[in-house]
Amino acid sequence: MREIQSAVITEAVKAITMEASICLEPDILDALVQARDRETSPLAKNVLNILMVNADIASREKIPVCQDTGVAVVFAEVGQDVRVEGSLEEAIQKGVKDGYEEGYLRKSICDPVTRKNTGTNTPAVIHYEIVPGDTIKLSMLPKGCGSENMSGLVMLPPSAGIQGMVDFVVDLVVKAGSNPCPPVTVGVGMGGTFEKAALLAKKSLFRPLGQAAERDDVAQLEKEILDKINEKGSGVHGLGGCNTALAVHIEAFPSHIASLPVAVNIQCHAHRHKEVTL
């Protein structure tokens, strides 16, 4: 049984918390370049250039790529042969708190009733999964609420079929317009239960941008939905063109014969996320 000190976990979470808000991953930057190169609207093309300049400045100057540094969402894949010295939950929460403090990141978390700010950007939302092995993988997603607020979930009847699912996803993203700061990444959870579909939608956002689903039929749905969104959507920041979305990622899970849950979690153009394995 391998042991990991809680202090090591805290330091790792602090590091990825700060890095996620400052540096976009290479696949995100590459997708923005490709979007600019195929863009049909001169105004939208100019905005994409500005977004890339902004990302470059943020990385070089070590400042947030967006003023909304989001809700800290952490996925923790914990190996079954790992023992944490101390509390894993407390170690992660402290890492988030320290990262937002030392990184001078905006603290946006407040009580849902009183609306009083917690002052630390905690508690973070943490999802745990027990997996084989003796490591802990921590994935950080600072979720800005311009995009989060445009997400949605529906419990479709099975009679709605695949077409009903496609229509729901496309309509939701198109109606969101410029609110989620497109070009967006669209995470879709299909199947399971009410809460499982939502979790799948968010988890899908960690997949390398544009990497197709393993199942051929699901990958085809991703392409179909992406094409329809870009055909009908309002484009980059609502300014027209052909790049409302950069990618659609679908995660499918078996569901009850009497229901078809579908969740959509939208991510803005600044698709911030970082991972570390201990």
TrEMBL record:
Designated name of the protein: Fumarate hydratase
Any Pfam family the entry gives: Fumerase
Occurrences of domain Fe-S hydro-lyase tartrate dehydratase alpha-type catalytic (ranges): 11-276
Keywords associated with the record: 4Fe-4S, Iron, Iron-sulfur, Lyase, Metal-binding
PANTHER family linked to this entry: FUMARATE HYDRATASE-RELATED, L(+)-TARTRATE DEHYDRATASE SUBUNIT ALPHA-RELATED
Molecular-function annotations in GO: 4 iron, 4 sulfur cluster binding; fumarate hydratase activity; metal ion binding
Similarity comment: Belongs to the class-I fumarase family.
Species of the source: Candidatus Desulfobia pelagia
NCBIfam families: PRK06246.1, ttdA_fumA_fumB
EC nos: 4.2.1.2
Record keyword Oxidoreductase present: no
